[in-house]
Amino acid sequence: MMKVRLFSRAAAAMAVCLLGGSIGSGTADAAPSFGACPDGSVVAGHGVQCAVVDVPMNYADPDGPKIQVTVSRIAATGERRGAIFANPGGPGADGLDFWGLRTEVLPAELNAHYDRIAVQPRGLRWATPLNCTAEGGAQVPLGGGDRTAIKKACDETHPGYLDTITTENTARDLDAVRAALGLDRISYLGTSYGTYLGAVYASLFPGRVERMVLDSNVNPDWVWTEEFAQQQIAGKQRLDDLFAWIADHSAEYHLGDTALQVYQNWVRMAVDQGGGWYANLTPPPASLADLPGSLPEPLAEIARDGYTGSLEQTGKLQNLLRTLISRGATTQGPLLGATSVASYTRTYWPVFARAMADALANPANVQRLRAIEGVTSTDSTGQFVFAAITCNENAIPGRLEVIGSAIATIASGGDAMDARADLVRSGMACGTWKPVTTPVLITGAGLGTRPLILQSRHDALTKYEGGPAMSRALNGSLISVEGGDHGNFSRGNQVIDDAVMTYLRTGQVTITEAAEAPLPAR
Asked: What residues does 203 pair with on adjacent strands?
């Protein structure tokens, strides 16, 4: 479910000021000079170096104002075969340490023969940040419902910048970096939103692509409202898998001998932590009077008074929907936040089960749950970029009529994730924020080598249908992976890692199916 400087030691402090301030107007005529990375952007000891590249803020006006993106690079340790760019997803995820954090788990062949490059997407910290400051100096809430106020606040700092935060422009930034580095062709690895970014790049610049690996794919037909609605449905299946696994290990975790028993313990804990309707409701019959007291205020208001469409009501509903779409649940207790993380990859299942057992035995013992929950925390600029991209280019019209069906689902004791899906489909996450661009048509025409598409069957963030759909659009080679890990490459799945390296060497894909990654030894 989709960031970047000229860093000698002496120039590092000056560069930090430049990136945090106004848009620059320099050019990228000279090759960028790599040196130290911005403070806090990468973990030391992995050989990551960074540089800054100036790119046009608006590619329709290439000689106009410039913005900056930071580029990270880890040089090949052996005979170089090429450069592979990467994006971790989001939209709104930091990218500079993508390769550094994976150094120990990447195949040795990749580390030896490829320069590994990541570009910090526009709008994020360590690039020219999207800074929308209202009167009084406070950051305007991008989920506030009033597009006019949002646009005004953003334009106060960087006139016109908000409307340029799109996947197409981010892809054009990648190509500008490619050119600045003097590379004729690049390979690319994208995960989650990074698959859509890569697909847009391939559609715009097919002649610049050597190899392309897209792992855990956005469905190009669902951008964006339906993508996030389907995410709720996919998450329901993966939670069933998680609870069944915990039940299979009941002797160790004592959370229940069946998936239902584990689920019942999970519900009780979620409710005790304030999760309320997120944790599902009691069976029917039910009426409006049976709505849970913990029902979020925007939904309770609509249940009482109906949907009025007022700016205040719209803003409240938008804020709730942004929480749902981003899978954020920090205000609803650490269990729900940790559960979302655990649904991404089986690697977290043992530690999540242990954390849940600790909290069941002692409700005050939530340290492990909070540690898991914090794995996906992001800088605030990531939230702003997420909002900008998904609203600037959303191609799926909202359906206000489904707000009623969502509340009916809740009132009748239905599954909270079905209600979440309908709330997302309402389109209220963007409200009056209308798209400023039409998404790029995804096509594999002109690609010299078919992309490699990896997709887990029970992926909780990018539903399985996204893999086949992306493969069809790009004429790719699809490998379907059992289980539901979000991100399959360099996750301990030797079959997948071997397939990716074979593809990078030869362009050939020799398998169509793979088992899920084994769990690490405990």
From this structure: none
Give the Cα separation of 329 and 235 in Å (integer).
14
User: In sequence order, what are the residues at sequence separation of 6 or more whose Cβ sits closer than 8 angstroms to the Cβ of residue 318?
Assistant: 143, 144, 145, 428, 429, 430, 431
Q: How many residues does the chain have?
A: 522
Using alpha carbons, select from 482, 518, 485, 480 the residue that is nearest to residue 499.
480
Please give the Cα distance from 382 to 431 (Å, whole number): 20
> Which amino acid, 294?
S
Interatomic CA distance for residues 481 and 101, integer angstroms:
24
Per-residue pLDDT of the chain (522 residues; tens, 9 = 90+): 433 322 232 333 323 333 333 333 334 457 899 999 999 999 999 999 999 999 999 999 999 999 999 999 999 999 999 999 999 999 999 999 999 999 999 999 999 999 999 999 999 999 999 988 877 778 787 665 577 888 888 888 899 999 999 999 999 999 999 999 999 999 999 999 999 999 999 999 999 999 999 999 999 999 999 999 999 889 888 988 999 999 999 999 999 999 888 888 988 898 788 765 566 533 333 444 545 556 667 777 777 777 776 766 766 676 666 555 554 444 468 998 899 899 999 999 999 999 999 999 999 999 999 999 888 877 889 988 998 999 999 999 988 888 877 877 766 666 778 888 888 898 888 878 889 999 999 999 999 999 999 999 999 999 999 999 999 999 999 999 999 999 999 999 999 999 999 999 999 999 999 999 999 876
Q: Tell me the residue type at 403.
A: I
Which tokens in the block code for residue 395?
């191609």
